[in-house]
Design a protein that fits this description.
1140 residues, alpha+beta, Jelly Rolls, Rhopdopsin 7-helix transmembrane proteins, Heat Shock Protein 90, 6-stranded antiparallel β-sheet, 5-stranded mixed β-sheet, 14% strand, EC 2.7.13.3, ATP binding, Sig_transdc_His_kin-like_C, Sig_transdc_His_kin_sub3_dim/P, transferase
Length: 1140
């Protein structure tokens, strides 16, 4: 592996020679040369009439046909068509011009003339006398020309791309067959060409019979066909794998690479032009495949090397991808630029790319030695080696005569590059195969682990089933006890029971019956899973069964405002052969679900005969229907418990479907025409009609149903009081469906419920009346029992309670303007879940305005998180105690009250702060004015003090000089005069200081006009300092005297500091009013403001600005104007005062 890394590093040197040859090979020049040389190898020289000796010139007597000893020139006198069936014509005459001239104007086409054609553009003529032609089907083949017309004795016999030139043309890839006749021997053949600055090719013609030439081409092209088929099949397989695993980019890059190689090999098959003459146009675009293939190669190595050098290879992909895009675009827009991109610039780009790839790959192999890196390095090195040999054997043919090459190398020389590409792609395929094998090994390991897990899960599932079965059996005994004792209490076994207590006992009975039905469902599911549920089929009237179930569920339907109909006519002759108890269980589940999920409308039960001796029974409702997402999990046990809507265990439909199928029927559920849901099942028809007694029972049930339908709806009916009362002796094997309250007693049961409800409503109303202004709490639950429990828990508190049976009704109450202080919201509700209701409430009310407490039996962290994300203030898991509920309610109401009080306090405090701020603003202005007066007095005292000190000091010095002059007058008159001159200057200086001080004092007391002062200051600065100042005055509102002086001194300090410290020569000054503020902006072109502390002048100016409530910013002007000097900027903002 270390040796392989060294070879990869050394391959960088071979890449220098490979890339140029690779590019030429793809362009097609190598194709024409190979064809011409192979054909000329079969016929080394032309059999000419004069028998002249060959030479090495283009237009002489001989030519260099191929890089083998067999191709050496031979005198034509010894040649015949049987021995040399393919010949290369020489001894051509050349003429430059539109029309051929006289014979004297023609010149031989020798090597020198061929090279001079590189400077020529225009029409070119070639002519010579045709030799003896093959006796059958002779052809003259031309290569390397884009525009050709051939004449025989002045008659046009062939034309290619001459009259309507096609710019999308690759001359190296075109095969131009000119058909001749044996009688043309001895005639003059003339070739007209449109020339465009290129030298004459070394090999550009062949002559011979068509069969021999075609056979020669096929003998060469079949290898290319094999290569292309291998590449395209590999690419197709890789494409299929990529489409199945889109995340595996390795397949994508390999597909691109193999397709580019395969299509490129197809375009090298010259013999295809025999069958598809116009295919040469496609050859024009094949050169772009080289850039795309190199991009795919880099992409493959990017994925194969993983994170190693990933950033480097992404840059390489970007560069080569952009170059490929430009190349493809240029091929359509500008053919000349397209050729330049391929021939001139691409070798340099590839040299840089492959240099980086060689270096990184060698380092990668050195540090990470695996089977995959071996194949990556193996393919890359062999690509370079075979590419290098391809260049040597095809583009430096003279080396074959100077060195003794192995025979195998000479035979494979035309196919060096295809073989190298084949080995390279084989190595990349091995990389993919290795990864695929690794994935297969991992899948086998995962399969073994999965099998082990499945066995373990099977054991756990068996334990679960046993636990459910045993637990369910143990629960049935206490539940039966609770139900029996409660029923006896309702019947007065322990004494009279008032209406309120009767209602509570009825709640206990209904709850125990509901729990018992759940236990029975679990037991049924267990027996169905173990295939030991026994059925007792017998003829059953579907009208009677539907009537019994509908009569039992009518109170619940009327509570929701729904109508129930049994649309099965009497004496219809329909009978079902099924277990009557299980049939009622099926109808209970279907009708109960329809009532639960229907908001308004009706539920109808129908039956009709079906094909094959079956009877179809359907339950139709006008509810919202079932969504496709819900339909996918509709029959999965416990799926409803996992969903966030509707509640329930999800056992009903699962058990219903299995019960129907166990009795030989089918079950279906779907949308109902016109809206709603239709659940239907088919069961075998009974061989005979049911007994007359059954018919009578059905009639009695229907009569009872009609009576119930005419009665007024109860205020709050409870869940149906029907249950699966099983025979204890046969528990687990067979069960019967009986009612804890018989259907005949349905009226009495409803009356008890109604009476109990009325009593509870009176109690609640009394509690509310006793506390005026009590908080209003909305109770939202689709289960009447749960609403009653909440009402009982909150009955003793001073709250006003409002109820809603679902989320839609709760939202309707809020939209109607109901003033609520708290919402107790159940999560598991049909149509709209508690989460959805909470989200809609939060669209209008914040958690502080209307608190929400979610109630749910689901206590997982994810459920609580979802509730809080929906906007709930609290989450209370069922079952909960009364104390816990009251504590949560009390806390939320207190928090809401505290928030409301806090908002009021914030509003009050905000008003107080605004008033204090207004007073403070006035005080600041008064303080600023006072400080201004103080500063004026201080300035006057300073000026007087300065005048006293300066003048006193100056006069003192003058007196000293006068005394000295007086003493020197007698001894040295010259020095005495000098002393007097000094005294004179001191006196003059003192007087000047006095005048300056007096002027400053007068300025302080004189009226101040800002506009005039600014103009004077700017003009004086221009005249005395020689600087340029740009200033355009703008109208200003009336300003206070202090504000005007602050602006004046700010401009003075800004310009003084800029000239003295910033070495600036240009200022730009703006002063304008906007939105109640005065904006001052002074910029210059000098040095930027440094980090040193401001001096006395700037500090004093900034203090005055801050006293007025303004702001100061000193900084750089960089980035304001492109190309402008950095400079410095002084920006001030002052508020406009109401008091001028």
């Amino acid at each position: 592996m270390r040796r392989l890394g060294r070879i990869g590093a050394a391959g960088l040197l071979m890449a220098l020679a490979v890339l140029g040859g690779w590019g030429l090979h793809w362009i097609g020049e190598g194709t024409a040369i190979a064809h011409a040389s192979e054909m000329a190898a079969e016929s080394a020289a032309e059999a000419t009439a004069d028998g002249t000796k060959g030479s090495s010139s283009i237009g002489g007597d001989g030519e260099k046909a191929a890089p083998t000893a067999a191709n050496r020139p031979v005198k034509s006198s010894g040649l015949d068509w049987d021995r040399y069936p393919v010949r290369y014509l020489i001894n051509w005459q050349l003429y430059l011009g539109e029309e051929p001239g006289q014979d004297a104007e023609w010149q031989p086409l020798d090597e020198a003339a061929g090279k001079r054609l590189a400077e020529y553009e225009g029409t070119l003529w070639l002519k010579r006398e045709l030799p003896a032609l093959p006796p059958r089907d002779p052809y003259l083949f031309l290569f390397e020309f884009k525009h050709v017309e051939v004449f025989v004795d002045g008659k046009s016999v062939y034309e290619f791309n001459m009259r309507k030139p096609d710019k999308y043309m690759n001359p190296a890839a075109a095969l131009l067959p000119v058909r001749l006749s044996p009688e043309d021997a001895g005639k003059t053949v003339a070739i007209k060409l449109l020339w465009d600055h290129k030298p004459m090719p070394s090999y550009w013609n062949n002559i011979g019979d068509r069969f021999t030439i075609f056979k020669s081409m096929i003998g060469r092209d079949w290898k290319l066909i094999v290569y292309s088929v291998i590449f395209l099949v590999s690419g197709t397989v890789s494409l299929f794998m990529f489409l199945r695993r889109r995340q595996e980019l390795l397949y994508f890059w390999f597909t691109m690479l193999t397709y580019c190689a395969g299509i490129g090999m197809i375009t090298l098959i010259i013999s295809m032009q025999w069958f598809f003459p116009g295919i040469y146009r496609l050859y024009y675009f094949r050169d772009a495949l080289l850039t795309i293939g190199v991009t795919a190669n880099i992409g493959f190595y990017t994925v194969a090397l993983g994170k190693e050098y990933q950033r480097t290879y992404r840059v390489l992909i970007g560069v080569m991808g952009a170059y490929s895009a430009v190349t493809v675009a240029a091929s359509f827009i500008h053919p000349g630029f397209y050729v330049s991109l391929i021939v001139q610039w691409l070798p340099y780009i590839m040299l840089a790319l492959f240099s980086v790839m060689t270096y990184t790959l060698a380092r990668y192999i050195r540090h990470k030695r695996t089977r995959e890196t071996f194949w990556l390095g193996f393919g890359y090195v062999f690509l370079l080696i075979f590419g290098f040999l391809h260049v040597l054997m095809n583009y430096f043919a003279f080396l074959q005569d100077r060195f003794q090459w192995p025979r195998l190398v000479l035979e494979l020389s035309p196919h060096m590059l295809p073989i190298g590409i084949l080995l390279f792609l084989f190595s990349l395929a091995m990389v993919i195969f290795g990864r695929f094998s690794e994935v297969h090994r991992q899948l086998q390991r995962y399969a073994r682990e999965l099998a082990s897990k499945n066995e373990e899960m099977a054991r756990y599932d068996q334990l679960k089933d046993d636990f459910l079965r045993n637990t369910s059996h143990e629960l049935r005994t206490p539940l039966h006890g609770i139900a029996g004792l409660t029923e006896s209490l309702l019947d007065g076994a322990a004494g009279p029971v008032d209406g309120h207590m009767k209602g509570n006992l009825q709640l206990i009975l209904d709850s125990s019956n509901r729990l018992l039905r759940l236990v029975n469902d679990i037991l049924d599911l267990y027996h169905m899973m173990h295939r030991d549920l026994k059925l007792k089929p017998e003829p059953v009237d579907p009208r009677q069964a539907a009537g019994v179930v509908a009569a039992a569920l009518t109170p619940l339907a009327r509570r929701k405002g729904l109508a129930t109909h049994v649309g099965i006519p009497a004496n219809n002759g329909l009978a079902i052969y099924a277990d009557p108890n299980r049939l009622e269980q099926i109808l209970y589940n279907l009708i109960g679900n329809a009532i639960r999920y229907t908001v308004e409308g009706s539920i109808t039960v129908v039956a009709e005969p079906a094909e094959g001796g079956m009877v179809t029974v359907a339950v139709e409702d006008t509810g919202p229907g079932i969504t496709p997402e819900r339909m996918a999990t509709l029959f999965q046990p416990f799926a409803a418990a996992e969903s966030s809507s509707g509640g329930g265990t999800g056992l009903g439909l699962s058990i219903t479907k299995q019960l129907v199928e166990m009795q030989g029927g089918t079950f279906a559920i779907g949308p109902r025409p016109g809206g709603g849901t239709r659940a239907s099942f088919t069961l075998p028809a009974a061989p005979a009609s049911p007994e007359e007694s059954a018919a009578e029972g059905a009639a009695a049930a229907l009569t009872e149903l009609a009576t119930l339908a005419r009665e007024p709806a109860a205020v709050l009916p409870l869940a149906p009081a029907f249950d699966d009362a099983r025979d204890d002796a046969a528990a687990g094997s067979e069960s019967g469906w009986n009612s804890a309250v018989a259907p005949d007693d349905a009226d009495a049961a409803e009356e008890r419920i109604h009476a109990g409800q009325e009593a509870r409503e009176i109690d609640a109303a009394t509690a509310v009346e006793g506390s005026s202004g009590a908080p209003t709490i909305l109770l939202v639950d689709d289960e009447p029992i749960n609403l009653q429990v909440l009402q009982h828990f909150l009955r003793g508190e001073p709250y006003r309670l409002v109820q809603a049976k679902d989320g839609q009704e709760a939202l309707r109450l809020l939209e109607d303007g109901e003033k609520l202080n708290l919402v107790l919201l159940d999560v598991m509700m049909p149509v709209l879940t508690g989460y959805e209701v909470c989200q809609r409430i939060r669209e209008r009310w914040t958690p502080n305005e209307l608190p929400i407490i979610l109630l749910s039996a689901r206590n997982r962290i994810v459920d609580m998180t979802q509730g809080f994300d929906a906007g709930a203030n609290d989450y209370l898991s069922k079952p909960f105690s009364q104390g816990e509920l009251l504590a949560r309610v009390h806390i939320q109401l207190k928090l809401a009250q505290f928030h409301h009080s806090l908002e009021e306090q914030v509003v009050l405090r905000t008003r107080e702060l605004e008033e204090a701020n207004r007073i403070l603003a006035g005080s600041v202005r008064e303080t600023a004015e006072a400080l201004t007066e103080v500063s004026v007095l201080e300035e006057r005292n300073r000026i007087a003090h300065e005048m006293h000190d300066v003048v006193g000091h100056t006069l003192t010095a003058a007196i000293v000089q006068l005394e000295a002059a007086k003493k020197l007058s007698d001894r040295d008159f010259g020095k005495s005069v000098e002393r007097l001159d000094v005294s004179k200057e001191l006196v003059r200086k003192g007087l000047d200081e006095i005048r300056r001080a007096v002027r400053m004092l007068s300025d302080e007391g004189a009226p101040f006009d800002l506009s005039t002062a600014l103009n004077e200051l700017i003009q004086d600065t221009r005249d005395n300092a020689g600087v340029t100042i740009f200033y355009k005055p703008e109208p200003l509102p009336p300003l206070s005297g202090l504000t005007q002086r602050v602006i004046y001194h700010a401009l003075m300090e800004g310009m003084t500091n800029g000239i003295r410290h910033g070495r600036c020569t240009t200022f730009a000054f703006e002063l304008y009013a906007e939105d109640g503020w005065i904006y001052f902006d002074l910029g210059n072109d000098g040095d930027p403001y440094g980090t040193a502390r401001p001096g006395f002048g700037l500090t004093s100016m900034m203090e005055r600005v801050h006293l007025l409530g303004g702001s100061v910013r000193i900084g750089s002007r960089s980035g304001e104007d492109a190309g402008a000097p950095e400079g410095c900027r002084l920006a001030i903002a002052l508020p406009l005062s109401d008091e001028r």
